[in-house]
Design brief:
77 residues; alpha+beta; GMP Synthetase, Chain A, domain 3; 3 helices; 3 strands
Amino acid sequence: MLAQAVEHLIKDIVDFPDDVSVRSHENARGELLRVQVNPEDIGRVIGRSGRTANAIRTVAQAICDHKIRIDIMDVRQ
C-alpha cells in the first residue's frame, strides 16, 4: 500500500507517468522503496535542493508505522 501511495504522488509530479516504477524491498534497516523515473523527470522528483524528495519522504513516513528509506533513480540504472 505504501508503494502505491508513493507511486501515485510521483505520477502527479512527472511528465512521463508511465515510466514511474516503485518497488518495495525489506532489509535489515527497514523497508526500502526504489523509485524509478524517466531521466527527464529526475529533476522534478528531486526538486530544488531536494525539497520535493524530502516532502515525498515525509509524507511516506507519516503514512507508515515503521522506518522506510526512499531511493530515487532514473530508468537507465
